[in-house]
């Protein structure tokens, strides 16, 4: 029996890693596009998980793990109602379910789940799994390059004025996620310059140390692989870079051509058991 790790589908942990580390993924709800509206990323938006759904999920995982405990990682409260629902559900299990506060999305959260799952697989306690997930998130940074602001504008994450001005100026923003909120950190005019800026941001936050970097993209594998090559050429030995599709739960907000870059400075799961 082992501590169970639960993450929602916004993390985008690749299926082979989910299987290898026995991580439980709970799918967020994808809302259909209104009839007649073109939506390039597969849907109109997302809806958070509710407390009843998460209560059932946590109960199943506690049963599977022999009540060793559950570490749960979900979207931050500023972006989804899922976190509040998770804390409500966790309160029913007398401390056996630990919902980790997150301020990021995508593979930053996925990396924390992976680190915790590796420890859980080796017999770590609930407290140890909670600690490694928390420390991994504390060492993480996430940036999003948006090829278009249309999808984000529809989701209400940026104003219509900002979207129109960016489009008129030909600017494609790179946004950082800080404390669950999106903010523009750079504006670029070409995808090539965006890749160079993303690599620069990763280098700055790594402070010369190896890092785990995940590049998630929406229909932009060639561009993501160019960024991968660039990162491998400029980052220290020991850095690992993963290129994966962006999960639909994020893609519907980011739109076609988007790239999300999540970085964890240092080793992904320090120490061994």
From TrEMBL:
**From what superkingdom does this record's organism come?**
Bacteria
Keyword tags: Lipid-binding
Q: Which InterPro entries match?
A: DegV, DegV_C, DegV_domain_contain
Q: Which GO terms describe its molecular function?
A: lipid binding
Which PANTHER family does the entry mention? DEGV DOMAIN-CONTAINING PROTEIN DR_1986-RELATED (PTHR33434), FATTY ACID-BINDING PROTEIN TM_1468 (PTHR33434:SF2)
Q: What protein does this entry describe?
A: DegV family protein
Q: Write the lineage as a comma-separated list.
A: Bacteria, Bacillati, Actinomycetota, Actinomycetes, Mycobacteriales
């Amino acid at each position: 029996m082992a501590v169970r790790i639960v993450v929602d589908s916004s993390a985008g942990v690749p299926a082979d890693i989910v299987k290898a580390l026995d991580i439980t993924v709970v799918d967020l709800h994808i809302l259909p596009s209104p009839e007649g509206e073109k939506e390039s990323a597969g849907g109109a938006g997302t809806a958070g998980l509710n407390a009843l759904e998460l209560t059932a999920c946590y109960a199943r995982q506690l049963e599977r793990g022999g009540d060793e405990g559950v570490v749960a990682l979900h979207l931050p409260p500023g972006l989804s109602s899922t976190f509040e629902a998770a804390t409500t559900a966790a309160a029913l299990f007398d401390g056996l379910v630990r919902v980790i506060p997150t301020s990021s999305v995508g593979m930053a959260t996925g990396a924390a789940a992976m680190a915790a799952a590796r420890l859980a697989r080796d017999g770590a306690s609930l407290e140890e799994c909670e600690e490694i997930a928390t420390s991994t998130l504390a060492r993480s940074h996430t940036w999003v390059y948006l090829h278009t602001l249309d999808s984000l504008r529809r989701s209400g994450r940026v104003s219509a004025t900002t979207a129109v001005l960016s489009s008129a100026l030909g600017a494609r923003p790179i946004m950082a996620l800080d404390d669950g909120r999106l903010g523009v950190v750079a504006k670029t005019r070409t995808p090539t310059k965006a890749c160079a800026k993303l690599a620069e941001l990763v280098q700055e936050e790594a402070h010369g140390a190896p890092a785990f970097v995940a590049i998630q993209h929406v229909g932009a594998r060639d561009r993501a692989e160019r960024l991968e090559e660039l990162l491998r050429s400029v980052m220290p030995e020991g850095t690992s870079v993963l290129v994966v599709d962006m999960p639909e739960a994020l893609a519907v907000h980011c739109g076609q051509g988007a790239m999300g870059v999540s970085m964890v400075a240092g080793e992904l799961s320090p120490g061994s058991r």
